Amino acid sequence: MKQVKDKYRGRTVYFHVMAELVRAAQYRGTTTYQDIAVIMGLPTSGSYMGRETGYILGEISEDEVIAGRPMLSSVAVSVNGKPGPGFFELGRDLGLMKLGEDKIEFWEWQRDAAYRAWKRPLPKMKNPLE
Q1: Collapsing DSSP states into helix, strand and coil, what is residue 76?
Q2: Domain 12-117 carries which CATH code?
Q3: Full-prediction pTM beyond 0.85?
């Protein structure tokens, strides 16, 4: 497994971005790279934004896979509603995406797995008949 060099790990911004991703997964939704850029204090477009958001999303997903969970960055998408090429490259680097595998199927599998992994627990309801 390719090890991403620590750039954001342990920094407050890492946890803010992770919280955004977890929240999106809990509600079976997505967040955008632009939303991530705003959280990071970056411009909302351009190569610098793409590089830095990709870097932090890579660190978070790598840590999630090491912890036995799916790629949490699967809930981060571009304005077209789909992940960028870096998501699929990371999936291959992490040994999750096989050569020739359908990209959209891989993304949907990872996204749905993230939804299950981060699903909000339902409150325990007391049985009114007891």
Answers
A1: strand
A2: 1.10.10
A3: yes
